[in-house]
Amino acid sequence: MSSSSLCTLQESGAKINQELYHKFTNMVSSFPCSPALTRHPLYRHDSGWYAPLAPMVSTMVADACFSARPSDIVIATMPKSGTTWIKAMLYSTVHRREHPADGPDHPLNSLGPHECVKLLEYQLYIRNRIPNLDGLPDPRLFAAHAPLVSLPRSVLTMGCKIVYVCRDPKDALISHWNFVNKFRARDGLEALSVETAADFFCDGVTLFGPYWDHVLGYWRAHQAHPQKVLFFRYEEMIGDPAAHVRKLAQFVGRPFCMEEEEAGAVEAIVRLCSFEHMTGLDVAKHGKTELVVSMAENSWFFRRGQGKGKKGKFKTNGKQVATPMKKPKARPKSETECFYCKGNGHWKRNCPKYLADKKDGKVNKSIYDIHVIDVYFTSVHSSPWVFDTGSVAMINNLKQELQNEQRLVEGEVTMCVGSDSNIDKITIAYSLYLQD
Q1: Which residue has the higher pLDDT, 357 or 37?
Q2: Which residues does residue 76 pair with via DSSP β-bridges, in sequence order?
Q3: Does CATH number 1.10.3720.10 belong to domain 3-313?
Q4: How far out from the chain centre does Cα 279 lie?
Q5: Would you state the torsion angle of the CA atoms of residues 174, 179, 181, 187, taken in this order, to the nearest 10 degrees?
Q6: Residue 266: exposed, middle, or buried by beta-carbon count in 10 A (0-12, 13-18, 19+)?
Q7: Of 135, 288, 295, 393, whose CB count within 10 A is highest?
Q8: C-alpha span between 292 and 56 (Å, rounded)
Q9: Count of beta carbons in the 10 Å neighbourhood of residue 83
Q10: Strand ordering across the sheet containing 161-166
Q11: What integer pLDDT is reported at residue 392 of this predicted model?
C-alpha cells in the first residue's frame, strides 16, 4: 500500500450512523457542563474527565465501534504535550525500511504528522462517520487524547501497545492557551488571559483533564505493564531525542540493527522530526488539519516549547499551577508501632527484623500487611496515600467515585498493589472520612 493510502484514510468504506451519534449526543448533553479555556463549554464525563460535546461524543463512538488489533500502536497524550513530535517520531521509526528518514519523498515531508497518525476522537470518528480501517496494514498507528479509562475498550482487551508522553503541566498549559487563542483570534473573539486559563486548569476543567488524573492513569498502567505502555517525559525527549528514538524502536519490536546504527538511521530520524525541519515544510506553513468540526492551521501545532520557558507569565495573585503540595516528609514517631515486629519507633520498611528476614528469604512475597500511615488530601479527584512500605498510591477522594468504581464495598476500601505477576488486592481501610 502506498504512503498516500496509508496516511490519507479513504472514506469510501465509512458508513453513516446518525443513530449512534445521536444517542451519544443526547447522553453527553445531559452531563454537567462548565465554561472553560476552550471556545466551547466542557462536559464532565461520568469518569470525571472533561471535553467539548463533539470530541466526547467521538470518544464514546470510538469506544463502541473501534476494532483494535494486537499489533496496533496507540499514542496517548494530553493536548499540547508533544503530540505532533511523538507522531512524527513513531511513524518515521516504524516505517523507516520503506521510507528512509533522509529520503526526499518521505510522507512526513508532504503530509505532516497529523495525516500520518490520526487522532481517533478528532479526525476519524467525527461528523457521523464510522471509518473502515480494516485495509490499513500492520502495524496500524493511531493517536488519542482520551484518558486511559475511556480509550476504546478493544485497545485494552487486545493488548495494543500504548506510547504516552507527559509534559510539565505549566508548559502544557501555556502551549494550550496559545493554541486556543489562535482559534479565538480567527473567529474574532477576545483572547483569554493566562490567569483565566490557569484558574480553569487548576480546577481540573481542562480538555481531557484533570491533568494529573490523565497522567496518573497512564503512569499506573506503565508501572503495571511496562511491556505494553511506554511512558516518555517531554523534557527528557528534548534532552536526548536519539535515546528516545531507540527506546521507541525497541518498544514497538523494531530495534535498530548494527548496520542502521552505523549508517546514522537514528540521527536521520531525529533530524526529520526536528522542530527546525518540520516548521520549514510547506505542509506546515500552508496546510490545514480537520479537527472534529473545525479546521486548524498546521502552523498552529508548532511552537518552540522549551521546558520551563514561559512560567514568568503567571502573576502571583493567580492560582498556583499544578505545583506539588509542600509537606514535611512523614517520619515514624516514638510511639509508632511497627506492623511487622510490633516494636516501637519505626515502620516496617526500616524494621531491623523485617530487613533481616527479607535478606534470609523468610518474608512472604504476598502484600497483605501494608498499612496507611498518611494521607495528603487535595482539591482534585485523587490524593497521595503513603504506606508503611515506603510506597505512595493515588486514591480517589470522592466517595461517590469510589462507589462507582466498586472500590468501596460495605465500608471496605481495597486496592491492587505490586507489579508484574506479583499483584495482590489488599484492604486499606474500613472507615474513612472521604470528601463529599
Answers
A1: 357
A2: 144, 164
A3: no
A4: 25
A5: -170
A6: buried
A7: 393
A8: 11
A9: 23
A10: 118-119, 141-144, 73-77, 161-166, 229-233
A11: 55
Find the mean pLDDT for residues 18-22: 90
- What is the structure's pLDDT at 385? 58
Whole-Å CA distances, 155 to 72, 159, 409: 8, 6, 29
Do 46 and 404 meet the contact criterion of CB atoms below 8 Å apart? Answer: yes
In a 13 Å sphere around the CA of 7, the CA atoms on its Cβ side amount to 21
Distance separating alpha carbons of residues 38 and 298, to the nearest angstrom:
18
Residue 355: pLDDT above 60? yes
Q: Name residue, grid cell 511523538.
A: 86
Pairing of strands 73-77, 141-144: parallel
Question: DSSP string covering 197-212, please?
Answer: HHHHHHTT-STT--HH
Interatomic CA distance for residues 52 and 191, integer angstroms: 19
Sorted by sequence, the CB contacts under 8 Å of residue 422 that are 6+ apart come out as 365, 367
- Mean pLDDT along residues 343-361: 82
Q: pLDDT-derived band of residue 336, with 50, 70 and 90 as boundaries?
A: confident
Among residues 145, 176, 214, 381, which one is catalytic? Answer: 145
Helix (H) or strand (E) holding 404: helix 399-404
State the amino acid at position 289 in one-letter form.
Answer: T
Catalytic residue at 222? no
Angle between helices 83-94 and 265-272 (to 10 degrees): 140
Distance of alpha carbon 135 from alpha carbon 264, whole angstroms: 33
Residue ranges of domains in the chain: 3-313, 348-429
Average pLDDT, the chain: 78
| Per-residue pLDDT tens digits for 357-407 | 888 888 765 444 555 555 544 444 455 555 555 555 555 544 444 444 444
Q: Answer for the pair 386, 373: CB distance below 8 angstroms, yes or no.
A: yes
d(CA 272, CA 112): 11
Amino acid (1-letter code) at residue 344: N
118-169: per-residue pLDDT in tens?
A: 999 999 999 898 999 999 999 999 999 999 999 999 999 999 999 999 999 9
Grid cell 537514528 is found at 266
**Cβ contacts of 57 within 8 Å, gap of 6 or more:** 21, 24, 25, 28
Range ranked top by mean pLDDT from 192-206, 337-351, 378-392 = 192-206
Query: Phi/psi at 208 (nearest 5 deg)?
Result: 65, 15
